[in-house]
Specification:
The protein contains 11 helices and 7 strands. By secondary structure, the chain is of the alpha/beta class. The radius of gyration is 19 Å and the shape is globular. The relative contact order is 0.15.
């Protein structure tokens, strides 16, 4: 059964350390806001990273964070109140040319959604402002897609079977992300990529992890009805255990950060 926005907001907070922190640690390593007057954070989720940035740079930098929906916003506001954070969380649409720096989380965005998010980040940045966004790039989830391809080929799923080749090719290469940034108006572009490993004890642990069960699989299997999704997940669980035996199942993600300046 699909989760409500409230349930998904709770789960988004739950997977922060497993998923989102892999991206934000790369941001923290390569972005310095010490000389920034104001920062906009798009898709701030439940606010963890925005609050951390506020604690680190808040004396000199005003942080404004936009959350994707009301449920995520409420969690972020509650967190900010609990630690007396100065971060301004909202769902407002920021004005053009308003920020010295803009950071956007596209870690769960499709290619089209990521392009729209980058365009929005550039719109609200001042000329010369730093703009950065992060997401998985091509080569991510290869171990999962390889097994999913076998499952789809073995199961009679009909015309609604997920197109695994399309899932693979939809992930942009790091070079394509750089081209996107340049096309949308960024200059002095740089990209950083680190390979992050996700490990699970067995097929059941993988399938039932909140990250996979509620965020990744629903995207990969969205063409199937509930019964079809259940068939695929059962077959995928069995195949993982058959392939890996007593070994843990691992997959990798190309965690990618693209930075530039608004030209």
């Amino acid at each position: 059964m699909p989760k409500t926005e409230k349930e998904l907001a709770f789960l988004t907070d739950l997977i922060h350390d497993e998923w989102t922190r892999r991206f934000t640690e790369l941001v923290d390593k390569h972005i310095d806001l010490a000389d920034t007057e104001n920062l906009a954070y798009l898709n701030a989720g439940t606010g963890n990273h925005a609050i951390e940035l506020g604690e680190k740079f808040g004396e000199k930098t005003d942080v404004f964070a936009s959350c994707e929906n009301a449920e995520l916003l409420q969690i972020a506001l509650d967190k900010a109140a609990a630690v007396r954070s100065s971060v301004d969380f909202s769902q407002i649409t920021f004005e053009d040319d308003s920020f010295d720096a803009v950071l956007a989380d596209a870690s769960f965005a499709s290619a089209d959604e990521a392009a729209d998010l980058v365009e929005e980040a550039i719109r609200i940045a001042r000329v010369g402002a730093d703009v950065a966004f992060y997401l998985p790039s091509s080569g991510s989830f290869g171990e999962v897609f390889s097994l999913l391809w076998e499952v789809v080929a073995a199961e009679d799923l009909g015309p609604d079977a997920p197109n695994v080749e399309e899932l693979i090719t939809q992930l942009p290469t790091a070079a394509e992300l750089e081209t996107l940034a340049r096309t949308l108006g960024l200059v002095n572009i740089q990209r950083e990529v680190v390979n992050e490993i996700f490990e699970y004890e067995n097929g059941e642990a993988f399938i039932t992890s909140p990250l996979v069960e509620h965020f990744l699989l629903p995207r990969w299997l969205c063409s199937l009805d509930d019964a079809g999704q259940e068939r695929v997940t059962k077959a995928l669980t069995k195949l993982i255990d058959d392939e890996d035996g007593t070994l843990a199942f691992r997959f990798s993600v190309k965690v990618t950060l693209v930075t530039g300046e608004k030209g």
